[in-house]
Design goal:
about 210 residues, mainly alpha, 10 helices
Length: about 210
């Protein structure tokens, strides 16, 4: 798995205040990344029902009391792992055009849904969130974090005149990601070679026509 984000320990941040914000990137135990990696690996292997803090402790080499100190439940732990894990990190693309940026984002989403273990993680989280109100709240935080990271793509597009100032970034991302989710997860169909470019073109053409 690719690891590309450093995680720093900040002794001034309390476990509970950090948990309420759904992120551990600016605070957490010294081996937070090992905990996150173990959490996502176990989720992909055993599903949400099989994910336990005891199992994460064993696989990460961290005492379970340390994990419980920061995350009092597996839902809270998984929510933090989704946002803070390096293997799910997202760097917003900057290709010079909105079409290129959205194609890069959709390629990332498509890879997430079609490449194990990320695809197993995505499907397990989606299924579990429909049955766990606690996990659903943390998944909501994850998507809020993602749209915040993607915001520069749309800010630049507005500045270049590619989108109107009142364009809805969340709607555009939902249309693109939703197309991939439905095609891959629900319809169980492969993505054609031109799926990404065709989907982005269709969504943008619709947005521009409305404008």
């Amino acid at each position: 798995m690719q690891r590309n984000v450093a995680l720093f320990f900040d002794a001034n941040l309390s476990p509970m205040s950090e948990e309420r914000h759904g992120t551990r990137r600016s605070g957490g135990p010294r081996k937070a990344q090992e905990i996150f990696d173990a959490t996502l690996d176990l989720l992909a292997d055993k599903g949400y029902e099989g994910l336990t803090i005891e199992g994460v402790a064993q696989h990460s080499g961290v005492n379970k009391t340390t994990i419980y100190r920061w995350w009092p439940s597996k839902g809270a732990l998984l929510g933090a792992a989704l946002i803070g894990a390096r293997q799910l990190d997202l760097a917003p693309p900057d290709t010079g055009s909105l079409q290129g940026d959205l194609e890069a984002l959709l390629h990332t989403i498509a890879a997430l849904l079609t490449t194990p273990p990320a695809s197993d993680i995505a499907v397990a989280v989606l299924g579990a969130a429909t049955h766990s109100t606690e996990l659903a709240a943390h998944v909501k935080d994850f998507f809020a974090d993602r749209i915040a990271r993607e915001e520069p793509v749309f800010t630049r597009a507005v500045a270049r005149g590619e989108l109107p100032a009142d364009a809805d970034p969340m709607l555009l991302v939902d249309l693109l990601a939703g197309a991939a989710w439905i095609r891959v997860v629900l319809r169980q169909l492969p993505l054609e070679k031109d799926f990404v470019s065709r989907t982005v073109h269709t969504v943008l053409a619709g947005a521009r026509a409305a404008d």
